[in-house]
Amino acid sequence: MSFLNYTSTRNPSINISAAEAIIKGISAEGGLFVPTEIPKLKKSDFLALSEKSYNSRAYDVLKLFLDFSETELQNCVTNAYGKNFAASDIVEIVKLGSGAYMLELWHGPTAAFKDMALQILPHMLTTSLKKFGVDGKTLILVATSGDTGKAALDGFKDINGINIAVFYPEDGVSDMQKLQMATQEGANVHVFAVKGNFDDCQNGVKAVFTNSEIIAKAAENNIFFSSANSINWGRLCPQIVYYISAYSDMLGQGQIAKDEEINICVPTGNFGNILAAYYAKEMGVPVKKLICASNTNNILTDFINTGIYDRNRKFYTTVSPSMDILISSNLERLLYHLSPESINQWFTDLREKGRFEVDETVKNTLHNWFYAGWCNEDDTKRTIKEVFDTYDYLIDPHTAVGYKVSEDYRRKTGDKSATIIASTANPYKFGTAVYEALTGNDNPDTPMNEFALITELERISANACPETLTAIMNKPIRFKEVFDKSEIPQAVLKIL
Ligand SMILES: *Cc1c(COP(=O)(O)O)cnc(C)c1O
């Protein structure tokens, strides 16, 4: 049996297996691993998938991308998606109005969509390590804007042979996210609050992978680095599953006709989730537009609309912190698929000048495939209230950004196609913003603690808070210290 191979966006001579790509996380010259071809599904495949459970769908899709045996992959899927999810179908779809299909991706243990990938990644990684006979220890390094950190900690806690260190921007995450991470259990977990923003954390962690002192000490102790950020192929590939799954459901249940196109709208930060939607489209989901929704950090809106990626701009802290990003790492993968020979020049420009511009052909393709828009802070809150008042349905600020941009798209274009909107977090993860949106009460003099907020929100909305969040109330805080971004290398050396 022959398996799909992977190359690097920045070095076409690289040709490795999925297992190796998952172990390495990022290519030595700084490129990202991409499949050398994208598998295709037929209409009949989607109909067949619609009859199956989420786990079987995950198996069927992932086997196209991974060089795992049947038993290996079955074990990964079974260990990842089970009772740890509050929804028996793992993912749920809620239809609002005539055309919005809310794809609820947050029924996992940490109440954000990151669980969809991070509950399975540890199993994919240990399987890959075993295949390669790696006998040392692995240290997973994660930079997070909030949700990845907790989801990675939960996925990797107490997994044999693995340690995990998470770095998050001290003031760039919600109180609930902070509490979730600070109370993390497990003997193999390390959590660091960093003074700075997400890009500081991400750059700090990226630099660790090439720091010679750290590399030497790790080698000496037989410790090997990997990443759980969405630059790891093992993060991306499980995300393709739920778009294929959602389309199969809509097709199977007759909500859309056989030849009907759909839109997929994704509230976007690091470009991982929407890239997974792009792969699903390339695999055969008939997508009219991939709708890329940004918050006030609207660098991707500008890029898709103008072809110019310019990071020389102000960074904003918003109520949708998981999207507060100026360098969307996974965009490199999309650009690679569009124009592999240009990548090195563009990313040299980005490094040296903070900007690059793509050519006309790429611009046109981007316009054909994507619609991009953004949503400011007031509109985010207004949208939460509007959706609640209209449909009695509570959404979090990230999902609200997606909902608003998809509504803007409908109004501007008149396109009434069914639209899957990725619902990326449970609203209780961002209680303060949701509460303000519903009540108009944003008086900073009377801040409520997270748990009083939960009680209030449950009273107002009659939507129950997930148990995994209420349980945090009784857990002791384990990680209190705040670090300077220059201390990231020392922090890692200490763990080694
Ligand atoms: C991570 C995250 C996003 C952004 O996803 P990307 O894959 O980084 O684009 C959006 N919403 C929530 C709630 C998230 O946790």
Protein model, in words:
The longest helix is centred in the middle third of the chain and has 20 residues, at 233-252. The chain starts with 5 loop residues before the first strand and ends with a helix. By secondary structure, it is an alpha/beta fold. Helix 8 (175-182) links the parallel strand 7 (162-169) and strand 8. The strands form four sheets. The protein has a six-stranded mixed sheet, with helices on both faces. It has helices spanning 18-24, 43-50, 54-62, 70-80, 114-118, 121-131, 147-156, 175-182, 198-208, 212-220, 233-252, 272-283, 299-306, 331-338, 343-353, 360-369, 377-391, 397-413, 431-439, 450-461, 467-470, 488-495; strands at 6-8, 11-16, 33-35, 92-96, 100-104, 137-143, 162-169, 189-195, 223-227, 262-267, 287-294, 308-310, 355-357, 370-374, 419-423, 482-484. The chain is globular and about 60 Å long. The structure holds pyridoxal-5'-phosphate.
